[in-house]
Amino acid sequence: MNKGELVDAVAEKANVTKKQADAVLTAAIESIMDAVSAGQKVTLVGFGSFEPRERKAREGRNPKTGEAMEIPATTVPAFSAGKLFKEKVAPK
After folding, report:
1. Is-contact 69 62, C-beta < 8 A?
2. How far, in Å, CA of 62 to CA of 24, rounded?
3. What are the strands, taking DSSP E only, across 25-71?
4. Residue 92 scores a pLDDT above 80
5. Distance (Å, rounded) from C-alpha 45 to C-alpha 79?
6. 71, 59 in Cβ contact below 8 A?
7. Does the pLDDT of residue 24 top 90, yes or no?
C-alpha cells in the first residue's frame, strides 16, 4: 500500500473527502518527523513508538575495494510496533 492508497482507505473509513484525509495524514506524518528529529519519542498507543536512536561509530568495509573505513556515529529514526499491532499481524 502506498500513500495514495492509504489516503483512499482513510477517507473511506473516516467518511471524509480524499483531500481532507490527505491533509490530515500529511500533517500527522510531518508532526511525527518533526518531533523525532527534535529528539522526542512519539507513542501511539496500540500502534507503536517512533524515536531517535544513537548509532555508534564503527568500522566498515568498502564493498568495491575491501578497504577498512570508519563509519561515523549518527542518529537514526526507529519504530517499535505496539502490542495490538503485533497481535493483529501475527495472531495467536
Report:
1. yes
2. 42
3. 42-44, 48-55, 58-61, 68-71
4. no
5. 13
6. yes
7. yes
CA dihedral 57, 58, 62, 66 (to 10 degrees): 160
The pLDDT value recorded for residue 68 is 93
- Per-residue pLDDT tens digits for 54-84: 999 999 999 999 899 999 999 999 999 999 9
> Cα 81 to chain center, whole Å?
10
Residues facing 70 on adjacent strands: 59
26: enclosing H helix or E strand: helix 18-37
Distances (CA, A) of 31 to 34, 46, 54, 65, 78: 5, 19, 21, 41, 15
3-state DSSP call for residue 86? helix
Grid coordinates belonging to 62: 568498502
Set of cell numbers at residue 85: 499491532
Q: Whole-model pTM? A: 0.81
